Amino acid sequence: MVEETINSNTNKAKANNNKPKSVYSWNVTDVQKWLRRHCSDYYHLYVENFIQHDITGRTLLRINDNSLLRLGITNDSHREIIWRQILKLRLKTDIMEIRDLQRRNTNNMFYDFSIV
């Protein structure tokens, strides 16, 4: 029984290590990596703007079209493409948060039933 618990805890630890870092905890370097991966055509044009404005993951999720303009992204098509990638990131982040909430609720329900 004790061995099963240890193995279960080890498996949970491994699963948590594979979980991607939350966008809310991204630093400026993480945002640069995201920009390079998802907006590679414009990375070299705007990476310095993102660095100068200290754009973190939390900030990135709050950016809108006006924010991108104030960041110096004046080309409409570049701004639209970057904005679309930010919207995709927001959606993905929201989905992950919903799944985490569902998992927590499922675990709490199991815990509540096991007490009774």
Radius of gyration: 20 Å
- Runs in which pLDDT lies below 50 for 5 or more consecutive residues are none
Number of helices: 6
Biggest β-sheet, characterized? none
Number of strands: 0
Specify the overall morphology.
elongated
Q: Please give the share of residues in helix.
A: over 70%
Structural class: mainly alpha
On the 0 to 100 scale, the average pLDDT is: 85
Quaternary class = single chain
N-to-C SSE series? HHHHHH
Distance between the termini: 22 Å
Describe this structure in words.
- This protein has 116 residues and is mainly α.
- 80% of the residues lie in helices and 0% in strands.
Keyword list:
116 residues, mainly alpha, 6 helices, 80% helix, elongated, SAM/pointed_sf
Gist of the model:
This protein is mostly helical and 116 residues long. The protein has helices spanning 2-18, 28-38, 40-52, 57-62, 65-70, 76-115. It comes from Phaedon cochleariae.
Task: Break the fold down into its secondary structure elements and pairings.
Elements: H1 2-18, H2 28-38, H3 40-52, H4 57-62, H5 65-70, H6 76-115
Helix pairs in contact: 2-3
